[in-house]
Amino acid sequence: MTKGWPGSWSADQLSRDDFLGGRLKILQPRRGYRAGVDPVLLAASVPAVPGDSILDLGCGVGVASLCLGARVPDLVLSGLELQDNYADLARQNASANSQILDVTTGDVADMPLRLRQKSFTHVISNPPYFNRNSGSSAQDEGREAALGEDVPLAIWVKTAAKRAAPKGTVTFIHRAERAPDLIGEMARHLGSLELMPLIPRTGRTARLVLLRGRKGGRADFRLHDGLVMHAGVVHDGDRKNYAKATASVLWEGAPLIFPG
């Protein structure tokens, strides 16, 4: 390990990547789980205001929390991360971007006491997408731990709901094919559910969904129009190809507002 680099990483094992058009500089491993647009979209969808408290379950290197902190000032940011080396990166990323992110290392299935004693205005999560029983796996251990669903989705949702304050929100991003499971689990613990599909291109089916619930909410379920991610019918470069509304979220830090 090279002195000055977090966790078990050496300098050549890490990349420093731009998020929000360069407003954030994020260290993350070159191999293993790498944050992309998913945590940015998750952060943009949270209806936070200054002074709110945020808990990011499975925070990884801190991208969702730090994107949220860059958009909304004076938030109290907390994260839970299973892997020590990713938690160390999240702490360093927060410091490097002049933010405070209180990261606890621990398991969502066995919430550390210091978090069990707290409640939060908003709980967010980009949980592992792949059920290990499905046969999908990643070759890299860190990526496998980040993407493989060791803890059932039901536990992620139940834990998030427990940590939400009264009238607080819980927001997840997940694969569209898991939407029925996610809706069912959220409905056990939360109300006022709202779902926004994330659609690769016009005419395609959604690959991801954002689902938000409110603790104690009583409003009916709402299915919003989907956010179309890419313009045109073919891919034409990672940055140039995003639709205008999506680009404003990803590059300018604009909020992703669920229609009222």
TrEMBL record:
Pfam short name (any one): MTS
BP GO terms, sorted: methylation
Residue spans crossing the bilayer: none
EC number(s) on file: 2.1.1.223
Database matches in PROSITE patterns: N6_MTASE (PS00092)
Domain Methyltransferase small residues, every copy: 41-132
Record-linked InterPro entries: DNA_methylase_N6_adenine_CS, SAM-dependent_MTases_sf, Small_mtfrase_dom, tRNA_Adenine-N(6)_MTase
Sample GO molecular function, one term: S-adenosylmethionine-dependent methyltransferase activity
Keyword Methyltransferase: yes
Keyword tags: Methyltransferase, Transferase
Name listed for the protein in its UniProt record: tRNA(1)(Val) (Adenine(37)-N(6))-methyltransferase
